[in-house]
Amino acid sequence: MKIDEQLLKSYSAEIKTYKKRELIFREGESPAFYYQIIEGAVKVNNFNEEGKEFIHNILEKGQSFGDAHLFIEKKYSVNAYALVPTTVIMLPRKNFINLVKENPHVSLEINACLSHRLYFKMKMIHDMVSQHPSARILGLFNYLRSYTDCEDQHSFNVKLTRQQIADLTGLRVETIIRTIKKMENENLVKIKDRKIYY
């Protein structure tokens, strides 16, 4: 979901730059802003009781994050960190709600975007119970790609390590490496400079 920057500024949005690894918001905090990335990358995650990280997504230029929390009286269920030096445009929650009320086309776009994300999240959860490693991996890749405009085959760069893919799918790293190699042979993914493209 991307809202026109001039429209955001007309509702008193501000621009802020975060350093690499700097926290943008923390799990348990009350949502205060709509965030949209101008440059850089943001990791959305949380940790379980043992301190194990669960990465929900890695977002880049033009993408928004934390927006679903702005419509409900719930605290953040995730953290957001700048992966690299990152510039975002931030709109206070009250102004964001006014923008949505006064611009019905934005409201429709947000509803479509949130519905799209929910659809792929449910699909990913369904794929995660599969006994086939490739189904779990593809479910994850489809979910991550749903946040982008990448529709062409092999145009989406999966910016996760093999270990992170293993953590997200409940598979062993060795299984991930072996399955991704098989998926490459089947032309489901491309590997270039150790990077995965789906």
Automatic annotation (TrEMBL):
Cyclic nucleotide-binding domain location: 16-100
Pfam families registered for this protein in UniProt: cNMP_binding, HTH_Crp_2
Coiled-coil blocks: none
GO MF terms, alphabetically ordered: DNA binding; DNA-binding transcription factor activity
Gene3D superfamilies: Jelly Rolls
Domain HTH crp-type: 131-198
Domain of life: Bacteria
SMART domains named in the record: cNMP, HTH_CRP
GO cellular component, one term: cytosol
Keywords for the protein's UniProt record, in alphabetical order: DNA-binding, Transcription, Transcription regulation
InterPro entries linked to this entry: cNMP-bd_dom (IPR000595), cNMP-bd_dom_sf (IPR018490), Env_Response_Regulators (IPR050397), HTH_CRP (IPR012318), RmlC-like_jellyroll (IPR014710), WH_DNA-bd_sf (IPR036390)
Segments passing through the bilayer: none
UniProt-listed PANTHER family: CRP FAMILY TRANSCRIPTIONAL REGULATORY PROTEIN (PTHR24567), REGULATORY PROTEIN YEIL (PTHR24567:SF26)
The protein's name: Crp/Fnr family transcriptional regulator
Gene: crp_3
